[in-house]
Amino acid sequence: MREKGIISPALQEGERQFEATLRPKRLEEFTGQAKLKEILSISIEAARRRGEAMDHVLLYGPPGLGKTTLATIIAQELDVPFEQTSGPILQKKLDLTGILSSIQPQQVFFIDEIHRLLPDVEEMLYAALEDFRVDILVGTGPGARTHSLPIPRFTAIGATTRQGLVSAPLRGRFGLVLRLKHYEWPELTQIIKRSARILDVAIDDEGAEEIARRSRGTPRIANRLLRRVRDYAQVRADGVITRPVAQTALDLLEVDRYGLDEIDQKIMLTILEKYNGGPVGINTIAASIDEEAATIEEVYEPYLLQLGFIDRTPRGRVATQSAWEYFGIQPRGRRSGNQPTLF
Ligand SMILES: Nc1ncnc2c1ncn2[C@@H]1O[C@H](COP(=O)(O)OP(=O)(O)O)[C@@H](O)[C@H]1O
Ligand SMILES: [Mg+2]
User: Domain 185-252 classified CATH 1.20.140.10?
Assistant: First the structure.
């Protein structure tokens, strides 16, 4: 039976330590995202040469694609201290004042889930990002006054899965705005082989590729599946992960052949069965599966587009021929396949 959440891109309970051991530390160990890496390495190199703080960076993209990893890599490559917080943790202006007033010159300050900052905390961040100053209230009552303290130039790195929820003024304060995309199978295969080396697991190319295909384009899921297949290989096979071993293990865990998770499947079945392949609008899909339209657009749809299961048209989403085939469903009232048969 499918274990709950095994192919969910979200970080799971107890996974943090495991992830930390597999996290690349240098840009050259970070597989894929070639264009983004090139842009970053130029900025890093330029900042290093000038001995200045690098521009602020906003990273966005679905969960598990490497945003936190990149933030730590940037700090390592710049050879500066790294400090981390997140939108939900920063509940009060005072928390942010504390962090900002002890910031080191050129250091990296990473704010995860930056779309979840409270409005007054966000506003305070504007001044820090733009003018490198922090406003603090001195004294109490009628005699209280605001002092504006200068702080050293630093690099803020924001991460978000929901670009649409980052306000324009906040986004505008980041010099670099970079999007992470889902990974291609060959890239994931490489990531899996690297992780296997670190975990000291024997795996061949085909075994790694099988896991890669089922990882939903997501390194976090790839590493998680590798761990489970390793268990299976050690207990039920002779410890080596080959394609048949990976297949049997992942079938047992009910991991879809393309790594589709429950929501992906609901989206596809809605388009295919309920709307006969579309076109159907994103809001209609959202309402039928009880999800937010923006979440579908920013978190789920990119993978389905990359797989070639849906197309975006001006009139809405349309299922492709490969989606009909994969789900083994026939469109109603159309000749099967829409194409002339050859026999
Ligand atoms: N490009 C990559 N190469 C190798 N491993 C990666 C890569 N991207 C992500 N990972 C691994 O995937 C896991 C999740 O990455 P993380 O940075 O936490 O994702 P995010 O912050 O975007 O949710 C980490 O264990 C990390 O080591
Ligand atoms: Mg993260």
Answer: no
DSSP state of 249: H
Identify the pLDDT of residue 343.
42
Residue 289 has pLDDT above 80, yes or no: yes
* Domain 262-327, second-level architecture: Orthogonal Bundle (1.10)
How far is residue 220's CA from residue 70's CA, in Å, rounded to a whole number? 14
- Chain segment 118-177, per-residue pLDDT in tens: 999 999 999 999 999 998 878 888 888 888 999 999 999 999 999 889 999 999 999 999
d(CA 210, CA 205): 9
CB 162 within 8 A of CB 45: no
Give the Å distance between the CA of 29 and the centre of ligand 1.
11
What is the residue-averaged pLDDT of the chain?
A: 93
Q: What is the pLDDT of residue 335?
A: 54
Neighbours of 234 (CB within 10 A): 14
Round to whole Å and give the CA distance between 283 and 89.
31
Can you read off the two tokens belonging to residue 82?
């790294």
Residues 294, 301 contacting (CB under 8 angstroms): no
Please report the pLDDT score of residue 340 as a whole number.
Answer: 45
Give the pLDDT score at 4.
66
Q: Are the CB atoms for 57 and 112 separated by under 8 Å?
A: no
CA-proximal residue: ligand 1, atom 17 (nearest): 66
Q: Which pLDDT score is estimated for 10?
A: 84
Give the chain's radius of gyration (CA, Å). 23
Do 185-252 and 262-327 share a fold? Answer: no
CATH number for region 33-179: 3.40.50.300
Domain extents for the chain? 33-179, 185-252, 262-327
Give ligand 1 pocket residues (Cβ under 6 A): 19, 22-24, 30-32, 63-69, 191, 219-220, 223
Which tokens hold the place of 188?
Answer: 């994931």
